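Case study 2.
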Amino acid sequence: MRVDSDLVTGGLRGRRAEARLEKATFVAVPLAAILFQVYVPLLVPYLGYLELPLLVVLFFALTRRRLTASLLYGAAVGLLQDALSHNPIGMFGIAKTLSGYFAAAASIRFDVENPVVRFLLAFFFYFFHQFLYWALIQALLAQPPGFSLQQALILGLLNGAVAVPLFQVLAKLMGRG
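Prediction:
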């Protein structure tokens, strides 16, 4: 049985185009989330409570399930967020690195396709991220920022609620939904 070479090469070109689109999305989505995080709260202060860069890191960590890739992705997103904001370089980098790594580790154990599990993981990792950031600021910079347990829990619920539909949109954007 002979296979038409145009069909084979056309299929390869289509997969290469999809791979390039996925790589572009892999870079464009966190960049858009970081720009949202930095600039939109200047116009609408209440949107500053959303930690979209963290949610993007969690999405990629939970869907890819690769520990090292998630660690590096979290580090890149965190450092870029530090560079584009007024924060000391490295603080978000460390927090998002560990969040991405642990989220990928959790994705191996849990059914992350379930919206309730996604909500709970986003809630937990938001709280983890905020607590880790607070601990790093105190330990490395000797600055006592205020950490409100009640506020962190409420904002964790908000970010968890935003994560569920955001993850569905990102899955469709990445061609996985």
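Residues 30-173 form one domain.
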